[in-house]
Write a structure and sequence with these properties.
This protein is of the alpha+beta class. The protein has one domain: C2 domain (Immunoglobulin-like, Sandwich), CATH 2.60.40. The chain is built from three helices and nine strands, in the order H-E-E-E-E-E-E-E-H-E-E-H. It has a five-stranded antiparallel β-sheet. The longest helix has 36 residues.
Length: 205
């Protein structure tokens, strides 16, 4: 009996520093996250207007991806082009996507074919230097929208234009908390503040 009481008291004594350590860690992470949310970032807004595709891709389901630094920031639903009155195979987009700029060298626009049970296959792409987009922001007194008409070429025939994308790009400076918070960061893997439940579970283990 006395041995069990002694063992229980030791466990309680040893558990207290662990509990305090978790609380300190939670406070440190919460403070760091709060400071990070107040950091100024550049938010890019992509207003996609339409995508004209070559007849080679006209009958295929296609989706558009925006990637930076090898990370996908947005992708559209797969859809097929429709013939317009002026004889263009066109996919009308009319969507706006947002992405926090995380220091990539380029903005990669990729037109992809979805495949069952496998990653989508890239049909055409266009690489825009990030410096070219950011320079327009640097030259403006406030947020400026710039219109881009991008030519996307195939991976096997870089000189053959397979699609043209009309997109407006707007760059604005915001606090990270106003740009979507930690969830808006795709390239950086950040720790989350441990919740009380998680701390309790860890202590019990």
């Amino acid at each position: 009996s006395s041995r069990l009481e002694f063992k229980a008291s030791c466990c309680e004594f040893e558990g207290q520093p662990i509990r305090l350590g978790w609380l300190r860690l939670a406070a440190m992470v919460a403070t760091s996250v709060h400071k990070l949310l107040e950091v100024d970032v550049l938010l890019m807004e992509f207003s996609f207007r339409h995508l004209d595709v070559h007849e080679d891709l006209a009958k295929q389901g296609l989706k558009l991806k925006v990637r930076m630094g090898g990370v996908t920031y947005s992708k559209s639903d797969a859809c097929k082009a429709v013939m317009t009155k002026d004889q263009h195979w066109r996919i009308s987009l009319g969507t706006t996507e947002r992405a926090v700029f995380e220091g990539a060298d380029s903005l990669d626009f990729e037109l992809c074919r979805p495949r069952c049970w496998r990653p989508s296959a890239m049909a055409a792409s266009c690489c825009v230097p990030a410096a070219a987009v950011l320079q327009q922001f640097a030259d403006a007194d406030d947020a400026r929208v710039s219109a881009w008409n991008l030519e996307l070429s195939g991976p096997l025939a870089p000189t053959k234009v397979l699609a043209s994308l009309a997109v407006d790009i707007r760059v604005v400076a915001l606090k990270l908390c106003d740009a979507g918070g930690l969830a808006a960061l795709k390239a950086a893997a950040l720790p989350q503040p441990p919740s009380t439940a998680r701390m309790q579970s860890a202590i019990e283990l």
